[in-house]
Design brief:
Elements: E1 2-7, E2 14-20, E3 28-33, E4 43-49, E5 54-56, E6 64-68, H1 72-77, E7 87-91, E8 96-97, E9 103-105, E10 112-114, E11 116-122, H2 134-137, E12 138-145, E13 148-149, H3 150-156, H4 160-164, E14 169-176, E15 185-190, E16 193-199, H5 207-215, E17 225-227, E18 235-236, E19 242-247, E20 251-259
Parallel strand pairs: 6-17, 8-14, 9-20
Antiparallel strand pairs: 1-2, 1-5, 1-14, 2-3, 3-4, 6-7, 10-13, 10-18, 11-12, 11-17, 12-14, 15-16, 15-19, 19-20
Length: 261
């Protein structure tokens, strides 16, 4: 099931289910949900043609918990080994933006880059989750771009500003709830040119281990997101670029880069 968050005209954002029309399977529709998706999928009877809606970030997390250097090839290209324990950092909710929305290149950085990732969306409040119960707390998966001001990351040591700026966490285009995330192709392109190509099976630490590790430290709430790391091939973005992250079984998250005004 594909869960979208969308707007139509001046109406408030809604959650919905993306599906094919029964009478014309080649056409997509969005069936509105009665409220949010995390307490159960309840349709309210209203539908919209997919072409008439504007997709938004598919979740509104209270926090985005990100994992650094979780692919060995990426750790190597960053000049280091895989860390002995997962590196955990936070991106604020204000960094989240949606598919088709702009990534703003800030004036305080001269080296903004992309990091395509698989994102885990949490479906229920949880803490201290044992490995065998991890599937119970995962709602689904989406594509993510852990946009980073690489020069600030190097100079400041702490990654809060480098990775937490407004628009530095594109998510989307939707949440896929029925997916085996263990071995999915993940690619990133810039202006149509392939820059990253990896598989989720190359993660040093899998999703179960990451959820256990994160929830041993903090409570996760419905809609919160865990970013699972990026494969090798990270690089710079320039104003005017179009960056697209594709995860097999989910879809493609596309954003353009503009100058922050």
């Amino acid at each position: 099931m594909r869960i979208v968050r969308f707007s139509t005209g001046d109406e408030s954002p809604q959650f919905g289910v993306l599906a094919s029309r029964r009478d014309q399977p080649s056409e997509l529709v969005v069936a509105e949900l009665d409220g949010g998706p995390y307490d159960g999928i309840a349709l309210n009877g209203r539908t919209h043609a997919f072409a008439d809606v504007r997709l938004l970030a598919p979740t509104l997390p209270t926090k985005v918990v990100a994992i650094g250097k979780n692919y060995a090839d990426h750790a190597a290209e960053m000049g280091g080994d895989v860390p002995a324990v997962p590196i955990v950092f936070l991106k604020p909710s204000t960094s989240v933006t949606g598919p088709g929305q702009d990534i703003e290149y800030p004036g305080i950085s001269d080296e903004v880059g992309y990091e395509g990732e698989l994102a885990v969306v949490i479906g229920r409040m949880c803490r201290d989750v044992p490995a065998e119960r991890v599937p119970e707390v995962i709602f689904g998966y989406t594509c993510a771009n852990d946009v980073t001001a690489r020069d600030l990351q190097r100079s400041e040591g702490q990654w809060g500003r480098a990775k937490g700026m407004d628009t530095f966490c594109p998510l989307g285009p939707w949440i896929e709830t029925e997916l085996d995330p263990s071995d999915l192709a993940l690619t990133t392109t810039v202006n149509g040119e392939l820059r990253q190509s990896g598989r989720t099976s190359q993660m040093v630490r899998g999703i179960t281990e990451l959820v256990v590790h994160v929830t041993a430290a903090m409570t996760l709430l419905p809609g919160d997101v865990i970013l699972t790391g990026t494969p090798a091939g990270v690089g710079p973005l320039q104003v005017g670029d179009e960056v697209a992250v594709t995860v097999e079984g989910i879809g493609t998250l596309t954003n353009r880069v503009i100058k922050r005004g």
